[in-house]
Amino acid sequence: MKITDPKFQASLKEPISAHGGQGAEDGTVSNRVKTLAKRWPGLYNFLKKTVGPSNSLGNHYNLKNRIQKLFGDKIDDKLILNLGSGTYRIHPEIINVDLFAFKEVDIVADICDTPFKDGSVDGIICEDVLEHVAQAPKLFKEMSRILKPGGMIIIKTPFVYPYHSSPNDFFRWTDEGLKYILKENNFSVKKSGITGGPMCTLQAILMHVFAMIFSFGSRSLYFILVQFFMVIFSPLKLLDPLFLLSPFATDISSHIFVIAEKNM
């Protein structure tokens, strides 16, 4: 569903503009560089997926396949939100909602207080966002409020992963913790798993440790070196298909996902 669809307009509590909000993430050097990089969303997201420590080879996540299985091939008649989307356009018919007015953002809004009516949304995607939300429990309540009974939610979030501001970094969620808070907010978990395995965790730790050693206390140099060593240590990800076979892989995974359904 597109924002021009009358059904979309009917889902809103009141008419809103797709413009406004903050145009960029403020603060640190890392945030300014990230904001600059996101001006080229295709390149940014390609690098994030291929050399970043959040996606292992052989994981069973595959967002686009998940969307197809949950919502079918044609989703133009369904209202699906990508909360905290950044610059990533998953599908032309999925509505991007973000606090910052990046390219590809359709609705600029606080995702803890969205402009949608109760029970008006068919599906929600929330990738790599929870750690940056100070009022995370409020976000779960908001997602439960706007989802229809039977509506689906897909969440991906870091677990064993270094601090990364965008513009802030508040929390880490365990598999058990995510399932608990979803249950508390009237969801039933349908599937959970790993997107970034133990070798992604090792890559993330090593790239920060080596950046710390060679930055000599310079914050600007530290951030640049983190990106450099991310590429250097990215071949470690090739080993993850083996480590994902272990029943203990979740205990030290870099990123996890949960798929849940709002109860009737």
Automatic annotation (TrEMBL):
Transmembrane parts of this sequence: 220-239
Keywords: Membrane, Transmembrane, Transmembrane helix
Pfam families referenced in this protein's UniProt entry, alphabetically: Methyltransf_11 (PF08241)
Domain Methyltransferase type intervals: 107-155
Highest rank taxon of the organism: Bacteria
InterPro entries: Methyltransf_11 (IPR013216), SAM-dependent_MTases_sf (IPR029063)
GO molecular function terms noted in the UniProt entry: S-adenosylmethionine-dependent methyltransferase activity
Gene3D superfamilies the record matches: Vaccinia Virus protein VP39
Protein's recorded name: Methyltransferase type 11 domain-containing protein
Species of origin: Candidatus Yanofskybacteria bacterium RIFCSPHIGHO2_01_FULL_41_21
Classification of source organism: Bacteria, Candidatus Yanofskyibacteriota
